[in-house]
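PROTEIN DESIGN WORKSHEET
SECTION A - STRUCTURE
LENGTH: 323
TOKENS:
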């Protein structure tokens, strides 16, 4: 989610040209999010709730380093060094250390470098606007079907960093918005200083959740029919620990199966059914995030994603236990 502001004509263009422009623009955004050093405060508005955080980001060669401090809600400090994420929760004196392929925080839009994004979205320019003190180009990514939401994206003109992002429903209404309220580009952020802060865990209890890469097929699950545009990206299971015991049956560890169309993502969570915890099937909307929970035989399934409910239902109804 932070890519290229290549100029895309507002008039109709041939499909190959449009495809190239969308992908070039997205990749420019993506590179800007990784390679720019900056300090800023960003605000997220979703479902009537608002939260804010301060972010420090630095890049040295192929090394990425980030620090995020929440400014609303419970105090929390998140450090990311490449794929290593360390979260400090001072209220509980707990530090969680884990590896993650993506932190999924603003300003991030691109979930994968799939060049088929242009098959499902078209791009429209909407001029320029000043955001957090920088001039930004405005581009709208319009879905070509009702299976995904749209996006309005403001990118800093010089390098393409995303400075504001809106998620739009199928009628173009804003469901969720994230934007920098203040931003210092090319800030003198020191990686070694952030690494030192990331390692100061004295007085904290350290938790190291384990995620084991697997495949849905290997765990006995399949999707009866593909959902248009969405490809499986990864699949993990979380083995039991002393802090988080789960079913003692082999192969029954909680599972997360992740899909993406390159922009939107959907996660399917599967765990053994527990009558004490899983009492009611439901569907829930919070801003752009939709959630469905239901029982499937001896399992409890949660499907979650920033996609229309009709898309989530295809995933939920299509999930099947292999006989």
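SECTION B - SEQUENCE
RESIDUE ASSIGNMENT:
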């Amino acid at each position: 989610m932070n890519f290229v502001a290549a100029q895309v004509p507002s008039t109709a263009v041939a499909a190959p040209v449009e495809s190239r422009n969308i992908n070039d623009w997205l990749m420019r955004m993506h590179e800007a999010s990784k390679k720019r050093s900056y300090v800023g405060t960003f605000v997220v508005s979703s479902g009537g709730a608002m939260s804010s955080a301060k972010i420090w980001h630095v890049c040295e060669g192929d090394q990425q380093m980030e620090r995020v401090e929440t400014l609303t809600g419970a105090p929390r400090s998140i450090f990311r060094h490449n794929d290593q994420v360390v979260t400090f929760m001072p209220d509980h004196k707990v530090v969680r250390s884990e590896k993650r392929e993506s932190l999924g925080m603003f300003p991030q839009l691109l979930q994968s470098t799939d060049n088929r994004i242009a098959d499902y979205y078209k791009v429209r320019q909407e001029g320029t606007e000043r955001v957090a003190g920088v001039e930004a180009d405005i581009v709208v990514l319009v879905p070509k079907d009702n299976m995904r939401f749209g996006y309005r994206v403001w990118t800093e003109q010089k390098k393409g960093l995303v400075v504001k992002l809106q998620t739009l429903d199928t009628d173009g209404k804003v469901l969720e918005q994230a934007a920098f309220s203040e931003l210092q580009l090319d800030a003198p952020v020191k990686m070694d200083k952030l690494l030192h802060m990331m390692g100061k865990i004295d007085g904290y209890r350290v938790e190291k959740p384990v995620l084991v890469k697997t495949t849905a097929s290997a765990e006995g699950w399949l999707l009866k029919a593909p959902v248009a545009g969405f490809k499986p990206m990864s699949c993990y299971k979380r083995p039991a620990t002393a802090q988080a015991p789960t079913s003692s049956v082999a192969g029954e560890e909680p599972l997360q199966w992740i899909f993406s169309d390159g922009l939107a993502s959907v996660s399917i969570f599967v765990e053994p059914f527990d009558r004490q915890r899983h009492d009611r099937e439901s569907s829930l909307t919070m801003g752009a995030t939709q959630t469905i929970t239901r029982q499937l035989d001896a399992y409890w399934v949660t499907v979650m994603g920033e996609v229309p409910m009709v898309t989530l239902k295809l995933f939920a109804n299509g999930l099947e236990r292999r006989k």
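SECTION C - NOTES
The two ends are 39 Å apart (CA to CA).
The chain has a mean pLDDT of 85.
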